[in-house]
Specification:
Blueprint: H1 2-8, E1 11-20, E2 25-35, E3 40-51, E4 60-77, H2 84-88, E5 105-122, E6 139-154, E7 159-171, E8 178-187, E9 191-201, E10 205-213, H3 223-228, E11 231-241, H4 242-246, E12 258-267, E13 271-281, E14 284-293, E15 302-312, H5 316-320, E16 335-344, E17 348-357, E18 360-369, E19 376-386, H6 389-392, E20 398-407, E21 415-424
Parallel strand pairs: 4-5
Antiparallel strand pairs: 1-2, 2-3, 3-4, 5-6, 6-7, 7-8, 8-9, 9-10, 10-11, 11-12, 12-13, 13-14, 14-15, 15-16, 16-17, 17-18, 18-19, 19-20, 20-21
């Protein structure tokens, strides 16, 4: 078998020991695949395969166990832009373009990768020991990768199931170190879902469940069907570190620290109900509910958002926004947000608010329309016992009513009416 393979390969395959048969159980030890330049591309201490051949009678390809253990895989993009591994395998001379049904289901009861080292590097990065703040395919190195899963596939009926029991690895990233990943993924013509997908790193712990039904993503997909497909989602994050996110989404580098998050949502993309959205960051808390409409149609999008019983620490925005120096009005203490609402679209909305601070309270409402060339606005603001010493350097005790209405902000064109009533200073 090895001799036949080597006659076809642009490289060399060597095997130390083979026990068993492919029909029941097969154990292969000390496998090495080298290039024509004698560079080791793949090496494996052990490959184990156990099957149940009698299940073929029931049109089921059943793999009791597959394990790849103590392997090192070194992929190099060479100076001509091709991967070294692909060069070892010559292209097929005869390409079969016919199509036919695949009459078997496929089931893998136990799939494992144990102690795998993997690298994918550009030729000029070979030998690098550098760590990176974000994912890069020019110099990707993963140590001690371990994966345990089981899977099922019925290609004809378009039914796929994947259950990850454990997935961990140590990459050459500054922050993200995968300690554990588990969960189930299901894909059928009527239901696509993720169940209890839990991710744990050194700095984050997140669990996600989500599902969408009555839509076939592969054979009968349309934007209209997506808009009306029932969806549900729950997210629980006892801790979520922004540096972990930055590894895969570099623009998030502007954010720093850890948040605690909870989310529950259900409905459709035409009308999605956010039953719970709770966010905590240091001394800041956000508790919100919302009704979101027409999320797939930007021209008809509508939001009905309500924030209650929340707080804002004036020092937290500077902690959250990395490398920005925003003014902090710590004299006001932690701001209590009793009510904050937003109702309307992205460019035309109304809002109300009621907040309390250590230096007094404010409440009011506003209506803003950004669609005209000269925006239209109308607002009312009420203050009670408001001390503006942080701005004026003089203590005050302001009880007031302020009404503003108008259009535009160009001094030559704007129209504005202002009513100010100061009850006490």
């Amino acid at each position: 078998m090895v001799e036949i393979a080597n006659d076809e390969l642009n490289g060399k395959l060597s095997i130390g020991e083979i026990d068993g048969t492919i029909f029941t159980s097969l154990l292969i030890k000390d496998v090495t695949l080298t290039s024509l330049q004698k560079d080791t591309v793949v090496s494996a201490g052990m490959i184990e395969l156990r099957t149940s051949p009698l299940k073929i009678l029931f049109k089921n390809i059943y793999v009791r166990k597959f394990e790849l253990k103590d392997a090192k895989i070194k992929l190099i993009e060479e100076s001509d832009g091709q991967l070294n591994l692909l060069k070892i395998f010559p292209p097929s001379k005869d390409i079969d373009t016919t199509t036919s049904e695949f009459p078997f289901t496929i089931e893998v009861a136990d799939f494992a990768l144990t102690n795998i080292d993997f690298s994918m590097q550009r030729y000029d990065k070979v030998g690098s020991t550098e760590n990176y703040p974000a994912l890069t395919t020019e110099d990707l190195r993963i140590k001690n990768l371990n994966l345990s899963l089981n899977a099922f596939a019925d290609i004809n009926k378009y039914v796929y199931r994947l259950t990850i029991n454990d997935f961990s690895f140590s990459p050459n990233f500054n922050y993200f170190q995968m300690q554990h990943l588990s969960g189930s993924i299901l894909l059928t013509p009527q239901l696509t879902g993720i169940n209890k997908l839990r991710l744990i790193t050194e700095e984050s712990d997140v669990e996600l469940s989500a599902a969408i039904s009555n839509i076939d993503f592969l054979k009968d997909f349309s934007k209209e069907k997506l808009a009306n497909a029932p969806v549900r989602m729950t997210l629980s994050a006892p801790k979520l570190n922004f540096d972990d996110i930055t590894t895969f989404v570099p623009p998030m580098k502007m954010l720093e620290g850890n948040i605690v998050a909870e989310l529950e949502a259900s409905g459709t993309f035409t009308e999605l109900l956010i039953k719970k959205l709770n966010l905590n960051y240091n001394n800041t808390t956000l508790n919100a509910k919302a009704n979101l409409k027409n999320l797939l149609d930007a021209d008809k999008m509508q939001f009905d958002l309500s924030i209650t019983n929340s707080t804002l620490d004036p020092a937290d925005p500077n902690k959250l926004l990395r490398n920005l120096e925003l003014p902090e009005y710590n004299d006001f203490g932690v701001v209590k947000i009793d009510t904050l609402t937003y109702k309307g679209g992205p460019l035309d909305f109304t809002t109300t608010f009621a907040i309390r601070t250590d230096k007094g309270s404010m409440n009011g409402n506003a209506k803003i329309d950004l669609r005209p060339v000269d925006m239209i606005y109308e607002a009312k603001l009420f203050t009670k016992n408001l001390d503006l010493a942080s701005f004026t350097s003089l203590p005050t005790d302001v009880n007031s009513e302020i009404n503003i209405s108008g259009s535009g902000f160009n001094p030559q064109k704007m129209k504005m009416d202002v009513y100010l009533s100061l009850i006490h200073i």
